[in-house]
Write a structure and sequence with these properties.
With 366 residues, the chain is α/β, with parallel strands linked by helices. It contains ten helices and 16 strands. The strands form three sheets. Strands 9, 10, 11, 12, 13, 14, 15 and 16 form an eight-stranded mixed sheet that branches. Strands 5-4-6-7-8 form a five-stranded mixed sheet. Strand 7 and strand 8 form a beta hairpin. Helix 6 runs parallel beside helix 10 and helix 9 packs across helix 10.
């Protein structure tokens, strides 16, 4: 992508090195070159000045001007261009996907700064990393994700995929949102590869709980028999940690019901039990919500990210408020971890499953 701003006039590297190479590659049918511009005509019509790239770079007329240019001054415009390029990529990958058992690979990372490199994922998703000193996802990155996820099912369909493999790493709220974009009602099989090569799979609907439970309430769910939103804390890591949950603001005053779910086994979860675990968690969440006649669930997750992603596939028809674990602000007399808002999911309603981004501004932004 060539991004055209007034500052491009100062770049000899773009004019003498990068653009000539891009124009040469543009003759290759396997290469997609997009031109995004922020420069409008001076007549007040709001339309792009298509002659600007050649004028600013001191090139022959219609060197760049002959190419299709798109506006990119606004975030929605940049998202539209990115979606157009993704569609073209999926169309060109369709035959490869068909030859690989109709499996599409989505490579995800939300914590590491993006970099140029040879990625072999069919789709490569990178979010802006957390700001320095913070753990939660970058708010701007979540807004970018919100724009992307509404298109993900269409991109999968264009590629002709019957299953999706996710690899990499993600914050738990992002993983859950990804799963919500690929619900069990839409996509038959989604598998997640963890960093150890473990394969976590949910094919079709999550199974109903049967026999001995893998995840159980630490204490019986707290019912006050009022109607209203509920709070669920899912803690599936070996060492129990309840501090952030226990001190969740106004927990007893805000929620009509509260549940705390723990894994019954010792050590790490077995990826082969992924479907059963997700089935139990989804059933418990829906049961608590049904008891209090609500579809609004506030969800705190402390689990492997593959579980968060696969669980997100099962939560359509519910409104899910997701949180992220964060350090308490500097200066607290007694620093302790806490959960801060991240996103609100409302899948199955058309468009992006991210209904709202609720993450607070970073320290640098505020």
């Amino acid at each position: 992508m060539l991004v055209v701003t007034p500052d491009i006039a100062s770049s000899e590297a773009i004019r003498d090195i990068e653009l000539p190479r891009l124009l040469k590659l543009e003759n290759n049918a396997e290469f997609t070159l997009a031109v995004g511009s922020t420069i409008e005509r001076r007549d007040g019509t709001g339309s792009l000045d298509y002659s600007a790239p050649d004028r600013l770079l001191r090139l022959a007329t219609r060197t760049v001007g002959r190419l299709n240019q798109k506006p990119v001054a606004a975030a929605d415009e940049r998202a539209a261009l990115a979606h157009s390029m993704s569609r073209q990529r999926m169309e060109r990958l369709r035959s490869d996907v068909q030859q690989s058992s109709r499996l599409l690979t989505l490579d995800v990372q939300t914590r590491v700064p993006p970099f140029a490199g040879g990625m072999d994922g069919d789709l490569v998703l990178r979010l802006r990393p957390p700001d320095e000193g913070e753990r939660r996802p970058h708010r701007g990155g979540l807004l970018d994700l919100q724009r992307f996820l509404g298109h993900l099912p269409q991109l999968v369909a264009i590629a002709g995929a019957g299953a999706v493999r996710v690899r990499g790493g993600a914050h738990l709220s992002v993983a859950c949102a990804l799963g919500a974009a690929l619900p069990t009602t839409l996509m038959g099989t989604v598998e997640v590869l963890d960093t150890q090569g473990g394969r976590w799979v949910l094919s079709g609907q999550a199974p109903s709980p049967v026999g001995d439970r893998l995840c159980v309430p630490v204490t019986p769910p707290v019912y006050n028999f009022d109607d209203g939103p509920v709070l669920v804390y899912i803690d599936l890591l070996p060492q129990q940690s309840d501090v952030a949950f226990t001190h969740f603001p106004d927990r007893d005053q805000t929620f009509a019901g509260v549940a705390h779910l723990r894994y019954t086994g010792d050590g790490l979860l077995d990826p082969n039990q992924a479907a059963a675990i997700v089935g139990e968690l989804a059933a418990d969440i829906r049961s608590l919500a049904s008891t209090h006649h609500t579809t609004e669930v506030h969800l705190l997750l402390r689990c492997p990210y593959p579980i968060a992603l696969l669980l997100g596939r099962t939560l359509n028809t519910l409104t899910i408020h997701l949180y992220e674990w964060e350090n308490s602000p500097d200066g607290d007399a007694e620093p302790s971890p806490l959960y801060v808002p991240s996103v609100v999911l409302r899948s199955g309603t058309g468009g992006s499953p991210i209904h709202a981004v609720t993450a607070p501004l970073s320290a640098a932004e505020s």
